[in-house]
Design a protein that fits this description.
The structure is a single chain. The protein has 316 residues and is an alpha/beta fold. The chain has a domain at 14-211: Alpha-Beta Complex (Spore Coat Polysaccharide Biosynthesis Protein SpsA, Chain A). Helices cover 27% and strands 11% of the residues.
């Protein structure tokens, strides 16, 4: 077994598997590293996406502050002088919830003193200056869970989850508390406990944080515009959501701020489904806010899908 993997096959003995989630002593917050730790969930066959991140927003990440989980090993040589970290993720681990919790365990244990931990998909685009300015308004010694929140289908739309694709952030304190609960949460997912069997890695993290009393914060700006965006900028600014519109409106907090006023120049921090778009994307956008935008091609492409499996009848 490759010792660089953060997880091994769940077919191994369950008790041995649980040792990966053993609790560690909590560290003091008195000497924390101000550099955020950005980690990107990817896969070896998606190396072009990882390269796209490296060549765009990833260049602005602090030295030693960018981790690719599940990356092709040669990514380090591609990065050149940019100091990045990589860790493998076992291909035998199919459950996305267990996979994401396992990476969070590794992140906590490998980088235990960062004030902020930022998770991205390999098609997430971050506006680092806006994000880091936003984070500077919080105290990382308190438990914060920041992202694009939605009503969760896994709790019958009574609690919030977040969009993993839009990226989300844990404070040092929130990750310390998550680390303590990983063994319990992983057990419930592994055993198929009701309410813990559906959804992706972001849902698993949200449920585990809720278990220790941490809920996603309202991250909208003063004009009630979202900071973390689940679609590309062109989709939000055009308001052309296609078949995604019904579920998106149903699970989102109101009022909705889409169209030309969707995204604050100084407050937007991320966009999703940005693969093959990052190199040509800049922020703030170069075009006029009142320009005409065609219907985005992404809406008829598998790159946009109903991530939450939402049953719209259940929330009408």
């Amino acid at each position: 077994m490759n010792k660089k993997w953060v997880m091994f096959s769940p077919v191994l003995h369950f008790c041995s598997w649980l040792l990966l989630f053993v609790r560690l002593p909590e560290l003091s917050s008195s000497h924390l590293d101000d550099r955020p730790l950005y980690w990107v969930l990817t896969a070896p066959h998606l190396i072009e996406r990882s390269k796209e991140v490296l060549q765009t927003w990833g260049k602005g990440a602090p030295q030693g502050g960018l981790l690719f989980a599940g990356a092709e090993p040669k990514l380090k040589s591609i990065a050149g002088k940019q100091k990045i970290s990589t860790v493998g993720v076992s291909p035998d681990l199919a459950n996305p919830g267990l996979r994401e919790l396992a990476v969070w365990r590794y992140v906590h244990d490998r980088f235990p003193t960062r004030r902020w931990y930022v998770k991205a998909d390999d098609d997430t685009f971050f506006i680092l200056s806006n994000l880091e300015q936003y984070l500077s308004t919080f105290n990382s010694s308190k438990a914060y869970f920041l992202g694009r929140r939605f009503l969760s289908p896994d709790t019958n739309y009574t609690t919030w989850t977040v969009s993993g694709g839009a990226g989300y952030v844990l404070s040092w304190k929130a990750l310390a508390l998550l680390r303590k609960s990983l063994r319990t949460c992983a057990t419930w997912i592994y055993e198929g406990r009701p309410g813990w069997t559906a959804g992706g890695g972001d849902t698993a993290v949200a449920l585990c944080l809720l278990h220790v009393g941490i809920k996603p914060a309202d991250t909208r700006d003063e004009q009630q515009r979202h900071r973390f965006h689940i679609f590309p900028y062109s989709v939000h600014v055009s308001g052309q959501f296609g078949l995604e519109r019904s579920w998106y409106w149903a699970v989102s907090e109101k009022p909705m701020r889409e169209g030309v006023d969707c995204c604050g120049d100084a407050t937007s921090v991320s966009f999703h489904y940005m693969s093959r778009r990052m190199r040509s994307f800049s922020w703030p956008p170069l075009h006029a806010k009142n320009a005409s935008f065609p219907a985005p091609q992404c809406m008829v492409h598998p790159c946009v899908r109903n991530e939450f499996g939402v049953d719209l009848k259940a929330i009408k």
